């Protein structure tokens, strides 16, 4: 990151819908701390090496930009989703003790043990959705038939929100995460609507608690006297609802597309379903379509990467997908090794701000893959890989459709 280095413009172009940007390899080798220009015109720094990304994400001093930080904007001033701005109320990016308190309360609900207990219900839902897709005939859009409705059903059950409102959740999520589809006025209206919805849901849970996450957090607050405040509950619910269905819905589609792009991968899994767990993590590692920007961190003091000092006030973009393909950490990083173990990928982040719902996401992806392998072993893409279309402008990345037949 010096005055002699060219400015890299994000997002970087790719040759195909599942391919990584060719620029990643050059950046890792020659300019691992690169100056980047965003669609907003603002600049920041991009990390593409595994060790650099992990070091910054693991440092408890830094979090994603908070309201009031003078950080780089991803989208132009008059557009962009809530997640691309720094002045939004939709933020649970607490620091220090505040963050530890929030994570302690919410993290109790997202244990691997609890997710295992939810697995039979997820499996039944996935089986029913696949049966409905089959009844509708081939070809079908796997993302619409399974990728979207399963995560929505799961996260609504967890939060105690009505599944019938899933179309509203989808719109709000898109308004939060899309870089260029909505105006600022539209995203602010969506944020206000969603905030009002979640406030009403919390009030309903106070009046009639259930066994969902929001009810559990409310009851903990009553019992311990130091639980989450109503604004914190609201922001937690909104963030989990967006992250819990939008990212997983898109990952389900990408996972199936990646495995079917070379059908020998699918055939290997059909022959040996014991590989499902490692295959899911390998797909998570190899996913080159995470939106093109990475995870943001705002530097509140200088940070050094192998002799390169990035100054205070810089917005750093941690290229998770680029880091996951670093040959310094992963042998044959460009290959999809369905049995790769260990697999210390950074798709869910690292350190104190790592993804709280990663056990949930892994469980959903494993359930989907297990059900499809068992019920539709002849599954294949209904179009050439090159005809798959990326979702333009979505901060979490995704494919518009995943046409399949069987």
UniProtKB/TrEMBL annotation:
Keywords: Heme, Iron, Metal-binding, Monooxygenase, Oxidoreductase
A Pfam family the protein falls into: p450
SUPFAM superfamilies: Cytochrome P450
Names of required cofactors: heme
Entry GO MF terms: metal ion binding; monooxygenase activity
Protein family according to the UniProt entry: Belongs to the cytochrome P450 family.
Stated name of the protein: Cytochrome P450
Species whose genome carries this gene: Streptomyces doudnae
């Amino acid at each position: 990151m010096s005055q002699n280095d060219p400015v890299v413009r994000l997002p970087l172009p790719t040759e195909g819908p599942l391919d990584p940007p060719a620029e990643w390899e050059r950046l890792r080798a020659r300019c691992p701390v690169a100056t980047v220009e965003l669609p907003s015109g603002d600049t920041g720094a991009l990390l593409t090496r595994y060790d650099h990304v992990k070091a910054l994400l693991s440092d408890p001093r830094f979090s994603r930009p908070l309201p009031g930080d003078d950080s780089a904007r991803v989208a132009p001033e008059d557009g962009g989703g809530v997640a691309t701005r720094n002045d939004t109320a939709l933020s649970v990016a607490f620091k220090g003790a505040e963050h530890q308190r929030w994570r302690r309360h919410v993290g109790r609900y997202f244990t691997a043990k609890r997710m295992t207990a939810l697995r039979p219900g997820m499996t039944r839902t996935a089986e029913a959705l696949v049966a409905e897709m089959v009844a509708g005939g081939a070809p079908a859009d796997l993302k619409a038939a399974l990728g979207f409705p399963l995560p929505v059903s799961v996260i609504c059950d967890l939060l105690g929100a009505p599944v019938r409102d899933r179309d509203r959740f989808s719109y709000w999520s898109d308004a939060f995460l899309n870089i260029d589809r909505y105006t600022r006025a539209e995203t602010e209206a969506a944020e206000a609507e969603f905030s009002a919805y979640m406030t009403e849901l919390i009030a309903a849970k106070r009046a009639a608690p259930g066994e969902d996450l929001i009810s559990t957090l409310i009851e903990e607050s009553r019992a311990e006297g130091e639980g989450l405040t109503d604004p914190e509950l609201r922001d937690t619910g909104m963030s989990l609802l967006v992250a819990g269905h939008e990212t997983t819905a898109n990952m389900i589609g990408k996972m199936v597309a990646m495995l079917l792009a070379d059908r020998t991968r699918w055939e290997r899994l059909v022959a040996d379903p014991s590989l499902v767990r490692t295959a899911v993590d390998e797909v998570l590692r190899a996913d080159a379509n995470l939106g093109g920007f990475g995870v943001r961190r705002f530097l509140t003091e200088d940070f050094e990467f192998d002799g390169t000092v990035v100054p205070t006030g810089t917005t750093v973009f941690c290229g998770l997908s680029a880091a996951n393909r670093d040959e310094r950490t992963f042998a044959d990083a460009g290959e999809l090794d369905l049995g790769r173990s260990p697999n210390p990928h950074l798709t869910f982040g690292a350190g104190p701000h790592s993804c709280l719902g990663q056990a949930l996401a892994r469980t959903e992806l494993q359930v989907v893959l297990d059900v499809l392998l068992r019920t539709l072993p002849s599954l294949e893409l209904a179009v050439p890989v090159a005809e798959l279309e990326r979702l333009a402008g979505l901060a979490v990345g995704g494919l518009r459709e995943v046409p399949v037949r069987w």
